Amino acid sequence: MTETVAVIEGDGVGREVVPVAVDVLDAVGEFSFVHAEAGDAVAERTGDPLPSATYETVADADATLFGAAGETAADVILPLREAVGSFVNVRPARAYPGVDALRPETDVVFLRENTEGVYSGHEDRLSDDLSTLTRVTTTSASERLAEFAVEFAPEGFHIAHKANVMRETDGRFRDAVQRVADAHDVATEEVLMDAFATRLPLDPASFDVVVCPNLAGDVLSDLAAGLVGGLGLLPSANIGPENALFEPVHGTAPDIAGEGIANPAATVLSAAMLLEHLGYDEDGTRVREAVESVLADGPRTPDLGGDASTGGVGDAILGRL
Ligand code: NAI
Ligand code: MG
Fold first, then answer.
1. Handedness of CA 144, 51, 14, 119 (dihedral sign)
2. Same domain as 39, residue 17
3. Which ligand lies nearest to the CA atom of residue 260 in the structure?
4. Hey, which bits of 121-176 come out as E strands?
5. Cβ(69) to ligand 1 under 6 A?
6. From the CB of 78, is ligand 1 less than 6 Å away?
7. According to a count of CB atoms within 10 Å of the terminal CB, is the N or C end of the chain lower?
C-alpha cells in the first residue's frame, strides 16, 4: 500500500527545510505526497491561516509533515493537532556526537500531554484589571498519555508535575499516570517540575523518559534543546489514535529565513519519526543514522558553526542514506 503523506511547508524556514525532508522520504519509501497550505502567507491571501481543505487533507492522510507557521502558529498548529486527534507530543532531545552541546550526556524524551492543561484555550478577560485561565485536567486524557508511556518506556519513566501546589489538576494527572503505570508494572519516579529544571542541566544522564502536562512539556523540552545544541536539532511527533503529525520543534526562524542556511536536521529527524510511526522502522533508523553521520563529520549549517547551506546538508544526508 502507498501511504498518503500530507506536506505543509508553512512559512519562513519551513519552506526551506520541509522540501529536504520530503526528498529524504522519497528516497527511502514510496509515498503519495499531498501538498497543502497553512500559516501567515495563506492567511494574507485568503484571510484564513488554516483553510478547511488543509484540515481535511491532514485528517485524511496517513501522516503529515509540517514545517512551521509564523504569527498564526497557534491558529494553525492547535487545530492541526486536533485534526489528527493527537493526545501526545513526543519530543526527543539528544546530544549528537560531533555537535558542540552544553551537556553532551543529554538523551531524554519528553512525552507531553497535548490537549489540555493551561493550553485549554479557556482564557477570559473579566475586567480591565483581571484575566483568568481555566486549567483543564481530565483522568481520561492523562490515562491515554500514560497508556502510550508504558508502551514507549516499559523500563520506566519520570513524571514531572507540580501536584504539591496544583493538587486538583496535577494531582489528578499524577494519580492517573501512576495508576496506569502500576497496572502495567512499569516503574515511575516523581519529580517536581521546578526541581526538574535544576536537575536536568546538572545531571542530564539521570533522565530518560519524562511524562509531563502540556505547558511543562513545552517549556522543559525547550530547556533540553538548549543543552543539546539548539532548536535546529529537535524533532517532534504529535500522535493520535489513527493519525499523526510530525514537525520540528522550532518555528519559522525569521532572522535567517530566505537565506537558505536553516538546519534541516530537526525536520529530517521528524521524517524519521514519521517512518517509524508508519511501521518502517529500518528506514527510520537509516535516516536517523544518515543525519547522525552528517552531524558527526559532514557539512554544517551556521547554527552549528559551519558555513553549509540547507541544500548542501540535505544532499549530504541523501548521499549517506
Ligand atoms: P524560532 O524557533 O523560529 O527561532 C528561535 C531561534 O532558533 C532563532 O534564532 C532561529 O534562527 C533559530 N532556529 C530555529 N530553527 C532553526 C533551524 N532550522 N536552523 C537554524 N536555526 C534555527 O522561534 P521564535 O523566533 O520564537 O519564533 C519565530 C516565529 O515562529 C514566530 O512567529 C512564532 O509564532 C513561530 N513559531 C511557530 C511554531 C510552529 O509552527 N510550530 C513553533 C514556534 C514558533
Ligand atoms: Mg514551544
1. negative
2. yes
3. 1
4. 123-125, 131-133, 157-161
5. yes
6. no
7. N
Does the beta carbon of 70 sit less than 6 angstroms from any atom of ligand 1? yes
**What's the gap in Å between 217 CA and the centre of ligand 2?**
9
Q: Are residues 220 and 245 in the same domain?
A: no
- Provide the annotated active-site residues: 119, 162, 194, 218, 222
Q: Is the CB of 80 under 6 A from ligand 1?
A: no
Do 87 and 114 touch, CB atoms closer than 8 A?
A: yes
Query: Tens digit of pLDDT for each residue in 171-215?
Result: 999 999 999 999 999 999 999 999 999 999 999 999 999 999 999
pLDDT in tens, 98-152: 898 999 999 999 999 999 999 888 999 999 999 999 999 999 999 999 999 999 9
Q: Which of 200, 226, 252 is the last residue in one of the domains?
A: 226
Ligand 1 centroid distance, CA of 121 (Å) = 22
Q: Does the complex come out with an ipTM higher than 0.90? A: yes
Whole-number pLDDT of residue 165: 96
Calculate the alpha carbon distances from 157 to 18, 100, 182, 186, 206 in Å: 32, 27, 12, 8, 11
Domain count, the chain: 2
Ligand 1 atom having least distance to the Cα of 40: 32
SS (H, E, C) 42-91: HHHHHCCCCCHHHHHHHHHCCEEEEEECCCCHHHHHHHHHHHCCCCEEEE
Q: Are 71 and 105 members of one domain?
A: no
Question: Is there a domain that residue 96 lies in?
Answer: no
Closest-CA residue to 67 (of 131, 138, 7): 7
* Nearest C-alpha neighbor of 154 from the set 191, 184, 110, 113: 184
CB 103 within 8 A of CB 227: yes
Q: What's the pLDDT score for residue 1?
A: 67
Collapse the DSSP code of 140 into the 3-class scheme (helix H, G, I; strand E, B; otherwise coil) and give the result: helix
What domain range includes position 150?
Answer: 101-226
Domain containing 162 — which CATH number? 3.40.718.10
Domain boundary among 169, 201, 226: 226
